[in-house]
C-alpha cells in the first residue's frame, strides 16, 4: 500500500472518499483527546481499504459532511478494533453535525456507524483474550510488530510529526489484512455469524447515550455503604455528571471520586462539616456547599425510604458455591472451544442466573447452543437438592 494521504481540505476529503468507496469494507480508527474535557475532541480519523490509506484531520477540514454521510452508509462494512470508544466519539460528532443542520439545532436521533466488524471480538472468538490489544493481534495473526512510541501523544497538537502520522496510519493500514485473516478464520470454523451477533450490539445507541441518573454505576463499592450513604452517592454522581456535561469538563474536575465517597460516607449536615472532606477546595466549598448539603439531605430521605423497603436478600453460601461451579463449567467449555471465557458468559451473567433466575443473555443467539442451555440446566439441577433440603 502506498503512503497514507493527509487530508486537510474539503476538496481532498471528497477525493479521498471516492477512493475509499471502491471497497465494500473500510477500516476505521480515531485519535481523540478528553483529558481536559468531558466530551472527546476528535483529532484524527484514519481510514483504509486494500488500495488506499487516508488520515483525515478534523481540526483542519472545515466541512466533514461528506465523511459523516460516508460513515452512515450501511452498504459498507466498518472494521474497527475494540470499537466501542471509536463508535462513541464518531456517533457524538455525527449526531452533533446532524443536530446543527436541523431547524434551531434540534436534537436528532442517535447515529451509529454500521454495520461493524470488531477485530477484538473476532480474535476473542478464536481464542485470544477478551480485551486483547490491536498490536498483540497484529503480531499474532500477521507476524508484524507495530511501533509503540506514540501511545501517549497529544493528538490535538499541530503540526503532526512524521512519526505520529506513521503511527496513526498503522492503526488502520494493518486492520485491512487483519480483517480478512480473522473473517476467513471465523468462516472456516463456522463462527462468522457469532461475530456479527456480538458486533450488532455495538450499534445500540443506548450504549453511548449519557444519562446522569445512571452515573453512579461507575462508582465502586456502593454495595458496602448504608442505604442513606448509597442514596447520597447516587445523587452526587448524577449532579456531578450533569455539571461536567454542562461545563464540558472532566467529571473528576467537578468532584473527585474520593471526595464524592467521603461526602456520602460522612453525610455532612452543615457547611462546617464540609471542611473535613478530603480534596474539597475552599473555592468549591464557597460556591457549592448549599447544593451539596441539599443533595445530602435528599440522600438521607431517599436512603430512609430504601432502608424501610424490603431489601433483596444477600446470596446464600450455597448460591455462591453454585455460581463458582457454573463459572468453572464456563471456563472448561471456553478452553474446549478455544474462546475467551468472558465472551461465553461473564460472572454477572452467572450471578444473575443463580441469584435472580435471569438467563435471557445466555439463551440468545449462538450462546444458547454452545453453553446457555447446559448452564441453565446445571443451575436448575444444582438448586434442586438444596431446595429439597430446605423444605
General description of the model:
By secondary structure, the protein is an alpha/beta fold. The protein has three domains: 5-207, Ribonuclease H-like superfamily/Ribonuclease H (Nucleotidyltransferase, domain 5), CATH 3.30.420; 212-308, HRDC domain (DNA polymerase, domain 1), CATH 1.10.150; 317-390, DNA polymerase, domain 1 (Orthogonal Bundle), CATH 1.10.150. 54% of the residues lie in helices and 8% in strands. It contains 16 helices and six strands. It has helices at residues 10-20, 65-72, 83-101, 119-124, 134-142, 162-173, 175-188, 192-200, 227-247, 251-254, 257-266, 282-308, 317-337, 341-344, 347-356, 365-390, and strands at residues 5-7, 25-33, 41-48, 53-56, 77-80, 116-118. The protein has a six-stranded mixed sheet, sandwiched between helices. Helix 5 crosses helix 7, helix 9 (227-247) runs antiparallel to helix 11 and helix 13 crosses helix 15 (347-356). It is flat, with a radius of gyration of 25 Å. The protein starts with a strand and ends with a helix.
Itemize the secondary structure elements and their pairings.
Elements: E1 5-7, H1 10-20, E2 25-33, E3 41-48, E4 53-56, H2 65-72, E5 77-80, H3 83-101, E6 116-118, H4 119-124, H5 134-142, H6 162-173, H7 175-188, H8 192-200, H9 227-247, H10 251-254, H11 257-266, H12 282-308, H13 317-337, H14 341-344, H15 347-356, H16 365-390
Helix pairs in contact: 5-7, 9-11, 9-12, 13-15, 13-16
Please describe the structure with a list of short key phrases separated by commas or semicolons.
six-stranded mixed sheet; alpha/beta; flat; 391 residues; Nucleotidyltransferase, domain 5; DNA polymerase, domain 1; 3 domains; 16 helices
